[in-house]
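does this look right to u?? flavin mononucleotide version
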Amino acid sequence: MRILGIMGSPRIKGNTDLLLDEALRGAESAGAEVEKLVVDKLRITPCREYYQCVKDGNCVIKDDMEAVYTKLLEAEGIIVASPIFFYGLTAQLKALIDRCQVLWARKYILHRLPEATRKGALIAVGATQGKQLFDGAILTVKYFFKSFGVEYVDQLLVRGVDKRGEIKKHPAALAAAFELGKNLAQRLS
Ligand SMILES: Cc1cc2nc3c(=O)[nH]c(=O)nc-3n(C[C@H](O)[C@H](O)[C@H](O)COP(=O)(O)O)c2cc1C
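got this back:
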């Protein structure tokens, strides 16, 4: 079974990246084939509302999203990982998600996507302790998953981590990320 990790931070080897690596290692330990997409390295234009997608399920913008659509639809499991930027996901990740209006259109307008048989999880990390720190990210990722038939089954939310790689001082969070990946793979097998 295939699990796709979507790394939404621009900071390589930062907290999100390290947590996602652990989750993917956990998934691999349970027999999954894993792949990590580093969104910041991709060429993804934000949605321009051309609305071709509601007519034929395709986007007129030709960029790296073409390959991303295929990867999203081929994965049985998806892990979205992001730092919190202003109580939401990063702009890079939000651009990818907005371009998935294509998948939303295929599912809800053109009725061309099958019902949910796939599962997804969110990993998010922020610097502060705010009670509502993850509310925006959770809502966006839940609705993103729903738009192409992925059931939101798990989340790991880490507060109080800021500097690059500071997550290494939180072994419990890294262990929880490993478990999240392993559990997701086990749920799918
Ligand atoms: C543009 C920007 C906005 C941020 N906004 C928030 C925020 O609203 N709340 C918060 O707790 N941390 C915020 N942070 C801190 C990051 O979430 C934190 O440093 C995180 O550990 C970065 O993860 P990374 O190493 O994976 O990039 C922000 C950081 C940046 C650069």
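The pocket of flavin mononucleotide is lined by residues 9, 11, 14-17, 83-87, 125-128, 133, 161-162, 164 (CB under 6 Å). idk if thats expected tbh
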